[in-house]
Amino acid sequence: MKTTILSTFFLFCLIGLGWAQSDASPNIIYILADDMGIGDASCYNPEGKIKTIHIDRMANNGIKFTDAHTSSAVCTPTRYGIITGRYNWRSTLKSGVLGGFSAPLIDSDRFTVGKLLQGAGYHTGFIGKWHLGWDWAFKQEYENIDNLNTILEVDYTQPIKNGPNQVGFNFAYGFSSSLDIPPYVYIENDRVTALPEKMTVNVDDKGFWREGPTGADFEHVKVLSNLTQKAVDFIDDNAHKEKPFFLYFPLPAPHTPILPTTEFMGKSNTNMYGDFVLQVDDVVGKIVAELERKGVLDNTLLIFTSDNGCSPKANFAELAKVGHDPSDGFRGHKADIYEGGHRVPFIVQWPAKIAGGKTTEQIICTTDFMATVADILDQEMPKNAGEDSFSFLKVLNGAIDAEVRPSVIHHSIEGRFAIRKGNWKLIAWPGSGGWTAPRSAKELVSLPIMQLFDLSKDPAEQTNLIEDFPEVASLLKKEMISLIKNGRSTPGPKLKNDGQEIWNEVRWAYEAQ
C-alpha cells in the first residue's frame, strides 16, 4: 500500500514538473545581423550563391517571414525601434545615424523590452554593437558630438552613463557604434575593459574603418569571434538558473569592415562579403549548438533578422558576376526607401511551441518584438509604451494567414517616408531617399512628387502608378498623416512625438489638408 501511495505521489510530482517545464517562460535570444540583405540567406534566395546552412536550419525548424521590415533602412533607428517598440522617427533622430561618441537616444525613463522582461523575472543581457548612444566622460565640452569622423577626448578611466544597464539590461558587453566608427573599445556594464593604447585605421575599401583610439584588447578581425564566445558564455552561465534569460545579440557583421577570419576566406566562392556572411551564419550555428548542449533549445525563442538591407560596400557588381543578388530582386539596398533597404530575413524558432517549416506572408516590423514578447508572457505594457508594436504571437501559434498589423511605415536614411498597406506602397518622395538613383536634385526635379506601387504585381517597384490610382494614393496619404500626428499606430491615447513636430519630408502632407 505504501509503495502504491509513494509511486502515485512521485507520478504526480513528475507530471507536475513536466507541466511546469513545458509552460515555463521561454529563454529569448534576438540575433541581429548588420547590413545583411534578404537575398543573403539561402532559405530566401535558393538561387543565390551564399549557402547559409544554419540560418536555413532555423527556417526549417521554425517560421520564416517573407514580408518583414525594419523600421528604418539604417542601423541606429532600427535598433531604437527593436528596443522601444516605437518608430524611430518619433524620437529626436529624424534622419541618419548616431556616432560613436553620441549621447543616448533612448531616455532612461522610457519603457523598453529589457525593462519589460526584467519585470517578468528575466535576467537580461546585451552583447555586441549598441549604436544607440551613451554618455562618455568627455575631457572638455563639445558643440557637436555626432560627427562620425571626429575624434573626441574622453577619460576612458571613468564609467559611461545612461548606457544599456539603464534601459533594461542586467549585463552589457560591447562597443558604442559600428566597427568603422571610433572609439574602438569594449565596455562591460559601465566600464571600458582596456584603455586605448594606440590609434588604428584601415583605408581598404571593404575592410575600411575610420581612424580612432583602440583598446589594448580590441582587434577588429577578432571582434565577431570574441562577441560570439561572450554570447555562448552568457548562455552557459544562465541556462539552468532560476530566472529565464533574454539575450539581445546585435552583431557587427557583415557590416564594414568586412573582415572574415581565415577559416571563412574563400569559403563562399563569391567575394569577401559572401565569406563574412558565412561567418555570420556560423555564429547562428554556434548559438544553437550551445542551446542544444545545455538542453534548453526546446524552450528558447530564437529570432534571427537584420537591421536593414545589404550595404553597397558588399560590391553588388562583383556579386552579380557570380550570380548573387543580396536584395533578391527587390529594388535598392541599405539606406533606401525601396524594398531592398528594409525588407529583411526574419526567422523565429521555438521548438516547444512552433511547428517547423512554416512560411508566412504577413507584414511585420521589427518594432513588433516588444508586443509579441508581452503577449507571450501575458504582460501589460504602459499606455505610453510600444506605440508601434503589434504582436505576431498568433502567427507563431499557427495562424500563418492572420493579419498582424493594418499597415507599416517605412523610413530612409534621409528621413523620407513611405506607407505600406496590403499590396499597396506609397512613397512620399520622388526618389530613393537613400543612396541609389534617383537621389540628386537634377534626377528628382522632373519626377512625380510621390510614388505608388502594387507590390503584388510589381515587387521590384518599377512602375509608378501614382497617376493611375489617385484615390488609393489619397487614402494612403491620409492614413500616414494620421499615424504620424497621433504619436502611435497602436490603439490607445494620442501621444506626442519627440523633437520637431513638422518635418520637411512630410510637410506636403500637412499642407495638403
What does this structure look like?
The protein is of the alpha/beta class and 513 residues long. It is 26% helix and 17% strand. The strands form three sheets. It has a ten-stranded mixed β-sheet, with helices on both faces. It has a four-stranded antiparallel β-sheet with strand order 13-14-15-16, with helices on one face. Strand 5 (187-188) and strand 6 (191-192) form a beta hairpin. Helix 5 runs parallel beside helix 6. It is globular, with a radius of gyration of 23 Å. The N and C termini lie far apart (83 Å). Residues 1-22 and 507-513 have low confidence and may be disordered.
Concise structural overview:
This protein is of the alpha/beta class and 513 residues long. The protein contains 13 helices and 16 strands. Helix 5 (223-238) runs parallel beside helix 6.
